[in-house]
Amino acid sequence: MDNELEQANTENTDTQTVEQNVDGVELTDGSSEKVDTSKEVAPTKEDTDAKQLKDFLKENPKYQDDFNNIVKSRLDRESKKYQTKLAKYENIEKVLNAGLGTQDIDESETKLREFYEKQGIKMPDKSIEGLTNRDYELLGKADAEEIIESGDAEEEANRLANKGYDKMNDREKTTFTTLAEYLTKEKKKQSLKAIGASTDILNSKEFNEFASKFNNSTDIKDIYDLYSKVSNKTQPKVEKIGSMKSTEADNTVKDYYSFEESLKFTKEDFDKNPKLFAAVEKSMPKW
């Protein structure tokens, strides 16, 4: 039986057997060129071997378990080799951290690079051969999504923040930025829930454009309160005490209104005097 499997699989017992459909698939390097499927492409040896193996197992399903065991055995052997090599690198990392006073291998590498570059020694490129900036960005986002799913977003974001943005590699920078955006949005959700507001508003283009006019330090609850007044969203029926009327005798509108002053206006104030809302909107970037 092993001989039959070897003949069907040749040297590729661990080759994946997933068939790819390339019809109309755009290239992933940013080019608008599409794969021309009108011309036949000669199959590679790997493709041929994979097809032969797939056909063999389809015709002889009784050998499927044996094939799975062969693949598992090979993967187990490779895994043991990897674990052995990883243990060596972990020991080296511990030595470097102890000797250089660093926290992780990335920090150790940065210190060593700086030291040897000052000695005039040219250091190899940090990037992994074959990976582009886009690849690092995708890997960083994938790392962030995995961290968020595990529930460790805040802990990992703090770890990276303590490391320092300038000391992060490109992948870590993307991870950190993604985690920071996620945590910021979660904090906003909690604040809105506290005042009984729907968190769906954070997906509103109109609201986000309005919120972008404020400083990052402005509480989302205050932004929501003001947004409710200047939009057609849930409006208070009763006029608030101390409301600053723009319809005074002289109908004067100032050039600038502080954030606190703006919060005192109602939608009725803005409806009666459009110039007032224009003045408040013009004041927003200065808050």
Q: How would you concisely characterize the structure shown here?
A:
The protein is an all-alpha fold.
Report on this structure.
There is one protein chain. With 287 residues, the chain is mostly helical. The chain folds into three domains: 86 residues; 64 residues, no CATH class; 88 residues, no CATH class. 58% of the residues lie in helices and 0% in strands. Helix 5 crosses helix 7. The N and C termini lie far apart (78 Å). About 18% of the residues have low confidence.
What's the number of structural domains? 3
How many strand units? 0
How far is the N terminus from the C terminus?
78 Å
Radius of gyration: 31 Å
Mean pLDDT: 75
Number of helices: 12
Structural class, from helix and strand content?
mainly alpha
Element-by-element helix/strand order: HHHHHHHHHHHH
Strand content: under 5%
The major β-sheet equals: none
How much helical structure, as a percent, in the residues?
A: 55-70%
Low-confidence residue ranges: 5-38, 233-250
Overall 3D geometry? elongated
List keywords for this structure.
mainly alpha; elongated; 3 domains; 287 residues; 12 helices
Itemize the secondary structure elements and their pairings.
Layout: H1 2-9, H2 45-59, H3 64-100, H4 105-118, H5 133-150, H6 153-163, H7 170-194, H8 205-211, H9 220-230, H10 259-263, H11 267-272, H12 274-283
